[in-house]
Amino acid sequence: MSERDINHGFRPGRSDQDAHASLRGPGPDGTWDVVVIGGGAAGLSGAMNLARVRRSVLVIDAGEPRNAPAAAAHGLLGRDGIPPLQLLRQGREEVASYGGRVVTGRVEAVRREGGRLAVRTADGRRAVARRLLVTSGLTDELPAVPGLAALWGRDVLHCVFCHGWEARDTAVGVLGSYHHALMFRQVTGDVTLFPHDGPAPAGEQRQRLDALGIGVAGGRVSGVETDGQGRLAGVRLDSGNTVPVRTLVVAPRFRARAAFLRDLGLAAREHPSGTGEHLPVDATGFTGVEGVWAAGNVTDPMANVTVASAAGVTASGAIVMSLLAEDADAAEAASGGGGAR
What we know:
Blueprint: H1 3-7, H2 14-17, E1 31-37, H3 41-51, E2 57-61, H4 84-97, E3 101-104, E4 107-113, E5 116-121, E6 126-134, E7 138-141, H5 148-151, E8 156-157, H6 160-163, E9 172-175, H7 178-184, E10 191-194, H8 203-211, E11 215-216, E12 221-226, E13 232-237, E14 242-244, E15 247-249, E16 253-256, E17 269-270, E18 277-278, E19 292-294, H9 305-334
Parallel strand pairs: 1-2, 1-6, 2-3, 6-19, 8-15, 9-10, 9-15, 10-11
Antiparallel strand pairs: 4-5, 5-6, 7-16, 12-13, 13-14, 17-18
């Protein structure tokens, strides 16, 4: 999917229309209280929370939301089924309504300059912040099977909570994941597991699959077949046989978007689940590096929109408390230490 497709539906503000617009903040030295890197659910939720307590906040978003290929976002109470790009567009407008600023740009590097954090974008713009909230998300690396990428987010899926209802009572194929086969058996009685490059299920796993009526197709997967409307019609095996399915479930590898933090000594690490990378944080989203918090899929690959939004709000609350303490210390120092204690 091209960047143009991904950004379709957004209504950029004046700053978005000028790729070289200044990112100077409203502070006396041009700083922002907080720069948020990433304008997805976590970033926009955190930014709105910050703006509502009158903290100056800048959101820099590359315009590549992970869920852009999906037709709808699910599991979001009160907004279930909303198109993801509509949700983000409304989120941008809400942040702006409280005085926050959202611009389009790709962050290339972050460096510490004295007590501040200097953010540089790929087009040469620069923003300086007291605190940083990283919500840059992740990239899904799909299995190397021809045809998957074109159907990703529509007929090629990975999450039963996000898409299981839409796949109910249809023929579902599962590529290589015993766990996903069990999960999708809840929504349909027609599930076929394709071990592909992995070992064929045996022992207790095979007994459970058989008991649940989950089929196992032997042989390596060589590609997928589509119908006349470009929808998934089947999974093709090396043998030449095609197994009819309407949905194919895959287990992508998650790649955290965090390379721009290298100058701060932060790097993505392997997630405990073994499914890819993440940026480790504590319960508040603190990264362990002074002034830097993170939230959303960059820290938790399994988080859906609701969980990512909540993490952004949690991190923004911790950032506010950090700023309050710094402001109070500065005020006390400026007043000569305050009154009698």
